[in-house]
Amino acid sequence: MKRIAIFASGEGTNAENIVRYFSSPDRDAEVSLIVTNRADAPVIGRAQRLGVECCLLPRDDFAGGEKVTELLESRRIDIVVLAGFLLMIPPALTERYRGRIVNIHPALLPRHGGKGMYGMRVHEAVLTAGDTETGITIHHVNERYDDGAIIFQTSVPVEPTDTAPDIARKVRRLEELHFAPVIEQTFCK
After folding, report:
1. What is the DSSP letter of 149?
2. Active-site residue numbers?
3. What is the pTM of this model?
4. What span, in angstroms and rounded, lies between the C-alpha atoms of 121 and 134?
5. Could you tell me the CA-to-CA distances from 169 to 72, 166, 179 in Å, in that order?
6. Torsion of CA 141, 145, 151, 153, to 10 degrees
7. Rounded CA gap, 70 and 92, in Å?
8. Where are the alpha helices (DSSP H) in the chain?
9. Is beta strand 101-105 parallel, antiparallel or unpaired with respect to 133-140?
């Protein structure tokens, strides 16, 4: 049984979807840990309701990577999933978990990626650029923001009347449909 840790900085909707997906008895993985860097992150409450251990590691604990690596190793974590996690993953962690850290980005990379490009900022950039489609990119994580090898992409059209919140709803639906199954296909088969 593979053990998954989810890193999340905010609401935790993707984290909850992944926990629920892997809670099925026919899965070859389970979410064993949720890690957040924010004491006020709603993902903490979700983790409690779902019965998943949740650890708060402040930004400074991520800086060198030793504390977070120690935590993951103590829980025998096999796979790290970034689900709305806003800190850069330190090189010690990307090296230790090379090929076993995955992220989801709310656009079709390489467009609209990089430092500071998350959430509504991405959807507004899609509108500003006049893109006719957007979607999700699930990718491996390396030492640079949104730069790792792409595992999966899927898209939805951007209509001329769409607002950034409209795009966010479309992208959220893609995340709900695809993130957990892609994790399973990539790491558990």
Report:
1. P
2. 105
3. 0.96
4. 13
5. 32, 5, 15
6. 150
7. 11
8. 13-22, 43-50, 59-63, 66-74, 91-96, 120-129, 164-187
9. antiparallel
Query: For the chain, which residues make up each domain, given as ranges?
Result: 2-187
Per-residue pLDDT tens listing for the chain (189 residues):
999 999 999 999 999 999 999 999 999 999 999 999 999 999 999 999 999 999 999 999 888 889 999 999 999 999 999 999 999 999 999 999 999 999 999 999 999 999 999 999 999 999 999 999 999 999 999 999 999 999 999 999 999 999 999 999 999 999 999 999 999 999 997
Q: CB neighbours of 161 closer than 8 A, spacing ≥ 6?
A: none
Tokens standing for 45?
């409450």
Domain range 2-187, its CATH number among 3.40.50.2000, 3.40.190.10, 3.40.50.170, 3.40.50.300:
3.40.50.170
CA dihedral 3, 7, 12, 15 (to 10 degrees): -20
54-56 vs 29-36, strand pairing mode? parallel
**How far apart are alpha carbons 149 and 139 in whole angstroms?**
6
Q: How far apart are CA 33 and CA 27, in angstroms?
A: 17
